[in-house]
Amino acid sequence: MHPRVHRFIRFASIAVTAVSLTYMAQRGNVRADVTAEKLNQVTSATRDLIDAVTPERPVAIHAFVSREVPRDYVTVRARLLSVLREMEARGKEGLTVRIVEPSSFSDEAVEAEEKYGIRPQVVANRDGDRVQEMQVFLGVAVTSGPHEQTIPFIDRGMSPEYELVRALRTVTQEKKKVVGVLRTDATIMGNFDLQARKQQPAWRVIGELKKQYEVRSLNPGAEIPKDVDVLLVPQMSSMTTAQLEHLKKYIDEGRPALLTVDPMPLFDMRLSPSEPMLPPPGQNQGMMFGMQDQGGEPKGDYLGFLEKIGVKWESDKIVFDTDNPHPRFAGSPPQVVFVTERPDGTKPFNAQDPVVAGINEVVVLFGGAIKPAAGFEAQFVPLLQTGTRGGFNKFEEMTERHMLFGLQGPILPRQRTMTGASEIIAAHITAGETSGEAASKGKNVIVVADLDIFGDQFFVLNERGGDLDGDGIDDLRFDNVTFLLNAIDTLTGDAGLVELRGRKAQYRRMTTMDALTKEADDKRNAEIEAANAKAEAELKGAQEALDAAVKKIQDDATLDETTKAVLLKSREEAENRRLAGKRETIERDKARALKATENERDKAVESVRAKVRLLASTTPLLLPIVLGFGVWLRKRSREAESIPSSRKRGAA
Q: Could you identify which of 101, 123, 230, 426 might form a hypothetical disulfide with 448, taking C-beta atoms 3.0 to 4.6 angstroms apart as the criterion?
């Protein structure tokens, strides 16, 4: 045989062998996941769910995935295809997986849009210095008989396995569980605004719940239907006595509920516990020119209601925490609480409760504090807590009432009450069956002292991921959405998706950097508190001097009432002018001191960062330098060995 023919046959054999092995590996589902979180492997629960699909109730998965995607979406596409191929390889006869790569205006693109409502999303494609738009398909439709669940687009922050498994579980269920949402003044289900004459959309939390549950709007003035599996009560403090009675009956029956009680709802300050009930739709809801809005019905005793459940809530207390782990949010007020593991080792989550399983960080916006009620025998498990470097402010300290515009806020107060202890923001309360006068079939309630925690911005961030600067690395991750869904699932007794929600790439903080800057942060906080205390002491002294002068005139028996009145008015005006000038000087000195403190802290932090940058830039160079030096020494040694002894220096 000619050598060229022989070489060609060998090359062709090697090529066929390589292609065959690759195909066998793909069909045999031979894939290795060497990542720390094992995100490219499906869980055992997912495998069990796939195995449970039978020919008697077949399931078809139609995936529309673009061949080309921007760099930011490469990982999402790879994970989606990995899970789909795992399902295809493991699925039995009843499971069909179809992967389509549609292009714009193709028949497959028309099918995706007209049959399943999956449309291409316009996303930014960063290619070098250029930014251009691309139309990308990353959608899936899961069908089983008359049941259909569509995932229109899997964005960067979404887990492909979780979305697929949730859709698969939903279409294979005989009936969705029911989440009832009470219609309170916090209209999270949407509402028609009579004044603006337009429909207010429902919060994103409702759309997220509808992906898994049947969500039903409930009249708070009627008994809760028996087929409701879990009850969501937004801003319970805006309920009347009669409405609280229906809620009490529901909870006493041992049925689960998620109650939110917000001391300062930022989305509508009129819903604060201190404010009257809003009037019914159609009535004037805002009185101008100093006329007070009389509101609707009186509020019920929501504080007493909570104490009967086992929760004590001070409705005018707003918590803060000076620990802020995010430099990009350095200007945020401390009432924006980042509930996460802190430099001092404080653990804000109870690892034993599935509600907070796999959660890394939750953001609370001007939330409140709850604690166990005295003398109530119930299991009170904290879910979200502040750190030890915080405290609280009162509602009246953070608001003011305008003659024309009513309640205004939030206003950041100069003084804050530091407690040095953790405050509980959310808790899970359970109790067994009781008899007697306060008989109940048990308790299964989660109370969250914040409603803004479920705001739309957190759902948008959850979908788009925490890569804010587009470098492929998560800058932050807030698990507010995961916390809500875990809470609902746990209350319904179905925690099958809790593990999947926690399967995310671990967000690793620069703990050494945090520890190095902690001293600067502590010093800054101490100096701020000292400046505030000094200013308050000086103002108090000036006010006491004025009070003493007034009292001296009032106690002078030699003066008649008219003379006293004239002298008092004259002295009060003079002292007030002096006090106003002194107050201005004190505030100016305080502001200067605080500015100097902030500057010192920034310098200290920047010094630490400069050292870290220096180490980061020089340390990688050490290994090649040492290696090169070692190679040079070895080379010199071998050269010396190769020189004949007669030629070496000092030879005879």
A: 426
